[in-house]
């Protein structure tokens, strides 16, 4: 009997630590001083890298095309660029960071009555525990779930950070506001539990520094370099 109670106590303690302490950890991260680098806005797994053409993202895998306006809730973007999707598992740090320095020219929340699950059980195991690549582009949650669009602009380029909530996410908490000047690597938001962050980079003359399936870390991992 005492053995069962001890195991139960240990499991309960581990759950409380992971859910209410470890999950909310806020590590100190110092961004690169290289002004040509665009940094990762989140911890997680790169699940897709697609070119933006005609203000749309076309999946190489299944040919499905998604207009930027449907994904971000805004249509005032340049014609071309790149889209990089990052899946944040419950084991990742869930603060989001500014990939560049600049001015926040847009922050808007797209609400919904029902959030769909991002992944099924096998996809969740692959992404979270086996750390394997799964392409989630074009799933229903991508356009239906609650999401927040944050657009940052400076003299050289414009980027959009789109935070997407999962079915079991409590909320997306902004840490900045529209019109604010942000530094590269500054915390811009927090998403509870599992979620996804899309980074849209509206610049054509640049080099992508990551690949699909790669684990990245907010602020610490450069995703692209301007030429």
How would you explain this protein's 3D organization?
This protein is of the alpha+beta class and 227 residues long. The protein has one domain (2-226): Glucose Permease (Domain IIA). The chain is built from 4 helices and 16 strands. The strands form 3 sheets. Strands 2, 3, 4, 5, 7, 8, 9, 11, 13 and 15 form a 10-stranded antiparallel β-sheet that branches. The protein has a 3-stranded antiparallel β-sheet with strand order 1-16-14, with no helix packed on it. The protein has a 3-stranded antiparallel β-sheet with strand order 6-12-10, with no helix packed on it. The longest helix has 19 residues, at 2-20. The mean pLDDT is 84.
Quick overview:
By secondary structure, the protein is α+β, with helices and mostly antiparallel strands. It is built from 4 helices and 16 strands.
